[in-house]
Amino acid sequence: MSDSVNQIIKPLTTTVNENGNLEIGGCDLVNLAKEYKTPLYVIDEDTLVSICNSYKEAFAEYKNVKLLYASKALCTSAIATLLSNEGFGFDVVSGGELYTMYKAGIDMQTILFNGNNKTEEELSLAVDLGIARFSVDNFSELSLLDNIAKNKNKTVDILLRITPGIECHTHEYIQTGHLDSKFGFDMSQIDEALSLIINNYKNLNLKGLHAHTGSQIFETKVYKDEIDILIKELVRIKDKFGLTLNEINLGGGLGVKYTEQDNPPSVKEMADIIIEAIKLNCEKYKYFYPTIYLEPGRSIISNAGVTLYTLGSQKQVPNGKKYVSADGGMADNPRPSLYQAEYIAQIANKPNAKNEETVTIAGRYCESGDIIIENIKLPKTEQGDILCVYNTGSYNYSMSSNYNRTQKPAMVLVKSGQSDMIVMRETLEDLIRNDIIPSRLKKC
Ligand code: LLP
Asked: Is ligand 1 within 6 A of the CB of residue 307?
């Protein structure tokens, strides 16, 4: 079981308690909704720890593995602390994610900085903080980073992000390894980048190559193809430049199960393919086993999280759909409107009631496209019901907005009947905190 936590939709601890309500992490969801209000993000610690263990166990036989959590999936100080306690390092993609790690007391030597347009300010902060690796994305960044490091009298360790030309079958917006991608060096640009590093950029120390093929991946073959390309490239670089690089970063991408139709491979299946592909390639080319970096985001945090909403108004379109509106929507979870993402849900205060109607759960935002779930079978819904939408741990809070000037929800971490708020609900004051009215607009 522990090797397939990403293959289940709900948190491991989900159950129906003696009150007849849904419970996660030993906490009654109806009580959580009362105590913390809705919308509310709930994260189950046991599920999160369990998936971390699956990763550690699955890669245990390969000694040189560095597991970095892709913090873009969900970045808060408590989640960073928890994952660091579990032995994970972090992939950050902004000064904000980096600062969160720094303030949470995370060891900067476990941080890798990704991104296609890191600013001078962000790179400079990262150099000052002494992070472990920069994954350099393009020629402009090579020059900028070298300059920053030189001015600080430092040498920084880098990986070269490359575009391996692998098409994975996922939503086109979350594919990244194909040739037309905005990310990374094209394979044909690697030699020029290497010559520059070797001859001009003396403050950059190249350690290896990085690729990321896409997200919500269901085919393990993508990893095999990626490794074939990366190791062949390491061998070519050694032959041509006499440079022995000993690190490869495979990115993230392992899929999760949002609905019954989704069939992601387990962490173990992915790990086995990766380890085997490395062994085969290293034996074939007589290359030594490199250190592997992995950057899973979604598969670490997704199904540990659920979102609770309170249901409100209803509308029956004559001869058409029945809409039931929730008190959140595209501002706390933009994925349905962005990627046509699908979710399943249950009513937390009557999980065992018979499904009686097919409804569309609408969000509360002023856009027709703000639909949380299209056509879901549920028991008869009433105002005040608490809806639990599953698998919202990744890319929900991290992509949330204040659209329609609404406050971002709170987040709680649950374990063994205890709930701890880890992100406070925003207040109305938070919403206007940064507003400025120029004095010339004020009437005397
Ligand atoms: N490493 C790199 C370089 C990445 O670009 C990403 C995700 C990851 C790791 C983590 O991938 P994961 O294990 O989470 O699949 N907002 C989209 C997902 C965008 C993913 C972007 N990069 C969504 O909600 O589906």
From this structure: no
What is the pLDDT, as a whole number, of residue 1?
45
Residue 171 has what pLDDT?
58
CB 32 within 8 A of CB 414: yes
Q: Provide the pLDDT for residue 34.
A: 98
* C-alpha pair distances (Å), 101 with each of 65, 95, 108, 139, 196: 21, 10, 8, 27, 32
Average pLDDT, the chain: 96
| Cβ–ligand 1 contact at 215 (below 6 Å) | yes
Model pLDDT, residue 444: 73
Query: Six-digit token pair at 339?
Result: 């990627």
Tokens 């400025």 -> residue: 436
* DSSP per residue, 136-195: E-SHHHHHHHHHHHHHTT--EEEEEEEE-----SS-GGGB-SSTT-SSSEEGGGHHHHHH
Structural contact between residues 285 and 58, judged by C-beta atoms closer than 8 angstroms: no
Query: Which of 94, 215, 293, 294 is the best mutation target for the ligand 1 pocket, counting ligand atoms within 8 Å of the beta carbon and taking the most?
Result: 215
Residues 59-109 pLDDT 10s: 999 989 999 999 999 999 999 999 999 999 999 999 999 999 999 999 999
413 phi and psi angles, rounded to 5 deg: -105, 130
With the CA atoms of 278, 280, 283 and 288 taken in that order, what torsion angle do they form, in degrees rounded to the nearest 10? 0
**Centroid of ligand 1 to alpha carbon of 226 (angstroms):** 16
Q: Kindly state the average pLDDT of the residues 291-300.
A: 98
Cβ(336) to ligand 1 under 6 A? no
Nearest Cα neighbor of 29 from 345, 337, 328, 245 is: 345
Q: What is the pLDDT of residues 351-393, one digit of tens each?
A: 999 999 999 999 999 999 999 999 999 999 999 999 999 999 9
